[in-house]
Amino acid sequence: MGTSTYELRCRECGKTWGNQPRSICEDCFSPLEITYDYDSLRPRISRELFASRAPNIWRYRELLPLPAGFQPSLPVGFTPLVGAPRLGAKIGSRRLLIKNDAVCLPTLSFKDRVVAVALANARSFGFDTVACSSTGNLANSVAAQAAREGLKAWIFIPSDLEPAKILGTQVFGAELVRINGSYDHVNRLCSQIADEPLSGERGWGFVNVNLRPYYAEGSKTVGYEIAEQLGWRLPDNIVVPMAGGSLITKIKKAFDELILLGLVDPKPVKFFGAQASGCSPISTAIKQYSSEIEPQRPKTIARSLAIGNPADGHYALRAITKSGGWAEDVSDPEVVSGIQLLAEAEGIFTETAGGVTVGTARKLIQQDRILPDETTVLCITGNGLKTTDVLADQYQAETPIAPKLAEFEAYLAAKAGALPAAVAAASTAAFA
Ligand SMILES: *Cc1c(COP(=O)(O)O)cnc(C)c1O
Ligand SMILES: [Zn+2]
Fold this sequence. Notes:
The chain is of the alpha/beta class.
C-alpha cells in the first residue's frame, strides 16, 4: 500500500513540509494538514475500485497518508449506516440514518480509525513507542492497536475518566499516567513531552500531538463510508459530536474530496455540531455569532467530549457556518435521555457522546434547522458499555422472585398495578 502522493502543508501560509512527525508550521505556528496530489489520483481511483475491496477503511487507501510498503493488520471501520425510522418518528425526521461507530473495531469507537492511520506512520517514522493525551476512547484505541502492532504505549488521561475506559486501557498492557487536571492540562503536558524527547530515547510518537495531521486524516473515512453507503450520494444534513473539533472538519474534507474527484455529484451538505452544555466552547461561539472560541472549564458527564480548549475549534466553526449549518448543546439529563431514546427506539447502545448527538439532533429539529424530509445522518461515535456509570441511578434493581409460576403471576399483577405513568414521565422529563 502507500501508493498516494501526499505531504504536510500549513493550513494558513500554505508552506509544505514533506512528511515528518510535526503538527505546527515553524514559520507561522498554524496547524499543518495533509495535502494530496488530486490530479494524479483522479485517473487511478473509481467507485468500482473502492467497492471491489474488503469492507474496511483501507479500501480508501489512496486518500489516506499511508507510507510505502504499509500492510494493515486490522480491518478497521466500515461500520453500519442504518435507517432509524422509530427514532425519527420520535424526534421528527422521516429520513433519519445512524452511522454506527459504537461497533467500530477493535475498541468500539470512531477513534480506531484515526489511531490506525497514525500508527501506520509511527512505525515508518521510526518510533517504537506511541503515546497520546486522551478523554478515554483514544486511550483504549492506542493501547489496543499498539499491542497489536508490537509497539509500546504511554497513555495520559485526566484522573476522573470512567472506570471502563481506564480498565479498557490497562488490559492491553499500556503505561497509564493519570493526571490531576482536565484534558487540556493533560494535552499541554503531552505537547511539552513531545517537544523535548526524553534523554536517551528516540522520542515518542504522540498520535494526537506530533502525529496529529496523519491521525486526523483517519476521520475522513467516516465521510467516505457514508457517501458510499448512500449509493455514492451525500446527505442533506449531518450531525457530529465535537470535542477538539477534528472529526467534523474531516468529514467535510472527505465530502469535498469526493466531489473534487468526481466520485459524487456536487451537493450542499449542512454540518451540525453537537456538544454538552457543560463543555460547549464551539457551540457557544456559533450561537453567539462569534468567531472567537472562548476556552471553558469542562463540567459534564460527556467526558469523551470534555475538551475546553478545542485544537480545531476555529476550523469546526468555519465548516459549520459556511455550510449553512448550526451547533447546539444539551444538558447532562438530556444526554442520558438521548442514550435511552436511541437504545429503546433502535436497539443501539451508545455512550454519552452519542447521547449528546441524539439530544442535539432533537433540538435542531425542534428549531426547524433540520427539516423532516431531509436526509439526516447522526454520527454515533462510541459504545454505551464504556459509560454505564451515567445510567446507574436510572434503573431499579428488581427484587428476585422464586422460579415458580405463581410467583411470576403475582409479580405481573404487582407490576400492572404499580408503575405506568410515573416511569413513562421520568424517562421523557429531560426533553419536556
Ligand atoms: C474523540 C471523540 C469525539 C470527537 O472528536 P474530535 O475529533 O476531537 O472532535 C466524538 N465522539 C467520541 C466518542 C470521541 O471519543
Ligand atoms: Zn504556516
